[in-house]
Amino acid sequence: MAEGLKNNPRVILGWAMYDWANSAYMTTTAAALLPAYFADGIVPAGGYELFGRVYDGQTLWGYLVGFGTFIIFLITPILGAIADFSAAKKRFLQVFAYGGALFATSFVFVGTGDVLLTMGLFFLTQVGFVSANVFYDGFLPDISTPETIDRVSAKGYAFGYIGGGLQFAIASLLVGFHDSIGLQLVTATRISLAMAGLWWLGFATFAFTRLRETGVAQQLPPEHAASSIPIAYAKVGFGRVWGTARKLIGFKQLLLFLIAYMIYNDGVQTVINMASVYAKDTLGLTTSAIMTTFLIVQFVAFGGAYFFGWVAGRIEARPAVLICLGVYSLVAIAAYFMPAGEALPFFALGAVIGFVQGGAQSLSRSLYGSMIPEEASAEFYGFYSVLSKFSAIWGPLMFALLADRTGSGRNAILSLIVFFLVGGTLLATVNIEEARASRLRWSFEGAEARTE
User: Fold this and answer.
1) 80 with 382: CB under 8 angstroms?
2) Within a 10 A sphere around the Cβ of 319, how many other Cβ atoms?
3) Domain that residue 263 falls in
4) Which has the closest alpha carbon to 89: 79, 100, 98, 99?
5) What CATH number is given to the structural domain containing 28?
6) CA-based nearest residue to 107, from 33, 47, 48
């Protein structure tokens, strides 16, 4: 089906360059600048009233990330199933990537008091970013083999960290030296947010020149002939997802991996989503200090992704992921005791986070890719994205609730240890070989998934 793409250096470079492209948004906008700008510049000093209650920036951002993710996760498996059925992974990737990049560029228009506008733009950008990643991840089994999948996945993350880091370095210089070039801090921040969107747009266009569609489009079943094309494909997508979801119950080891991943990834995503507001509201660090920390994370993570890809080649992917989760637990403890107002300890913590972040993410993706049927990779990565984003709801919500109820983000950050310990324990019980062998039992001819 995709034999011409497998282990092709030109194709792998193009695939990795999409991570280079979209990581600018994730690093500069979603992780670093926008949360801090939202908490410290967009939300008024006295908080923002919503549904009869006043929220501070840190709490409101936690609820936004959590509830926004809940809406997004509902659509991704259906889109993945449609893309597999119609052999349209690249087209779906392009539509959502370009849409997300354009919305990301629109953050240049948000200013103080534009709380609802910022929340709306962030939600639409996240729809584009998350959905595009489903189809991007879906290419991984198409362009690699079992012997190379860990290294190819690590290369994608490594390119993402470097690309995102370089763009973030430019943004950091613009924000850090705004006075020298005659810009206000708010103006420099807004320009930096727009630059991240344009970086995503430009390098994604280059990446798409190296990728091509895989698979063969299937004919719509006769029972959907009376429906319009969009409605017919939506019915097929929902039907395949529903059928696959029901049949997953019979694949115990794959299901156990997904549950383990959902739990420990919740901790990882909460660290990514809440680090900036924790540093701003709880530790009282400056925007410049936060941006420096994220730069450290990006460039250390580049080496970390390659390092753990190398480790996985020697001890397998699962033990390497478990090492990462153990380090994450220590990170949560260290963050709890982090002194307020001191940037150097936070820089050191950022370096540790960066080293394990690339390993945990890239190896989880490749480990899952080795367990799923190649002809339905976008659909199965839709499930992966669903669980990834569904899991990302609870960590930020728990963080927000604990910070709100206790009056401190320290108790909230310490609670993340639960996700790493429980998720890691479940991962250790997965029979990896059985899960990999089970992918041969799937068949996806027609509009329904079948199993042997």
Assistant:
1) yes
2) 15
3) 3-451
4) 79
5) 1.20.1250.20
6) 33
